[in-house]
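Today's session is about reading a structure prediction critically. Students often jump straight to the picture, but the first step is always the sequence itself: look for stretches that repeat, for charged clusters, for runs of hydrophobic residues. Only then move on to the predicted structure, which in these notes is written as discrete structure tokens rather than atom positions. Here is the chain we will use throughout the hour.
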Amino acid sequence: MATPAPPAPITDPASLAALLAAARAELPDVRLLTEAIDRESYRLDETAYLAAGLPGAVALPSTTGEVAGLMRLASRFGVAVVPRGAGTGLSGGAAGIEGALTIALTRMDRIVEIDRGNLCVVTQPGVINAQLKAAVAAEGLFYPPDPASYETCSIGGNLGTNAGGLCCVKYGQTRDSVLGLEVVLADGSVIRTGGKNVKDVAGYSLTHLFVGSQGTLGIITEATLRLRPAPAPRQTLLAFFDSLEAAGDAVAAMTQAGLQPVTLELMDGETIRAVEDWHHLGLDTTAAAMLMVESDAPGVGAAAELDRAEAACATAGGREIVRAADAKEADWLRHARREALHALERQGTVRMEDVGVPRARVPQLLRAIERIAAAHGVRCATFGHAGDGNLHPNLIFDRDDPAAAELTHTVRDEIFRAALAMGGTVTAEHGIGAARREWLPIQRGEGAVAVMRAIKAALDPQGILNPGRVL
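Below is the predicted structure for this chain, in token form.
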């Protein structure tokens, strides 16, 4: 299947012009971008080979009231709206729609409250993930969700996509750290879901409905997020293997043994060589695969956990197993894993995909990815969060390869089918967005998608919130 074309505009220029005139009169403090050169930077997110439209205008509100005012006007004039965070997404969920209004939440960048007594933080959506982590760490606290782009991605974007990251194997995805939200609905009304209570079963779980909805049901303007006491410094182990299968077997063995490391990451040989070529860390570039295992267990628990992980790796055929000498070396290794995509991008045009399978099926998925890429003669580098079954095959092409886009979709679709045949998913953390929306009914079934459409229609009867995304 080819990636669908961007949705046809549902906003006529006269309606947008009327909205802008009303916004200037009623919301004078909202910054509006209308020049084409300013709007161009809001056309795309970081999704490769995506066709996207040029926003008709971009609004940069700084308060919930301003977002609500913009949505009231969008509802009044029938203008489509694309909510957007930092634009680091990999599914096209925040890419532009021709002639529509993009509402960028980057100016809503205030941490409202760090509540030590209740182990939570209240934040606006424009706060960068790394900034939030640093702010709560200064209070001796820990916010677990950590996408690889944590230094540039926003909390709002993390919430919109239910972002994952390197710590999911132990701490879960973004939704597992969300206690409550403030959301502006399509008609401009504002609701709150949840709060600071750890336990709250009053009514439907609306909080989890909005997390991962990619701006199709409402715009998140504030979040109450769960914190944890700062864990112990991590201890880090690297294990190198002669085959991807052996690394996958080690992951399966650790899962079966009941280990729950904070990080269990995989890089294949292509990725190892690209990272080493850039960062010169002394990685074994002759290996076919590498696992990075980290523990933040307290006291002697971390060493004991890594001892068990080392035993699993050795049994699976790990040929070289080393431990970071200190916290600084561990930070370097972790940073190298986060930079894996950028290391590959130095070698050509990269299409990064996002599939997941039940954890015990990681070895089979690795074999399938290798087989499919080889069958089409496509260079593929795979890394990912092997501990929770989430792998990222990266298809690498020469920058001027005219067949790159077509081959990408052919290989991607075969990998998707392989993952689904294993009981997996076509997206474990990046989201459906625009790039994968034709696969949602294939994975979930028409009945489940019909329920999603009914929810969408109830909350957004005009269909103005991020049309053509997810559904």
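Discussion point for the tutorial: Residues 235-421 form a domain with the Vanillyl-alcohol Oxidase; Chain A, domain 3 fold (CATH 3.40.462.10).
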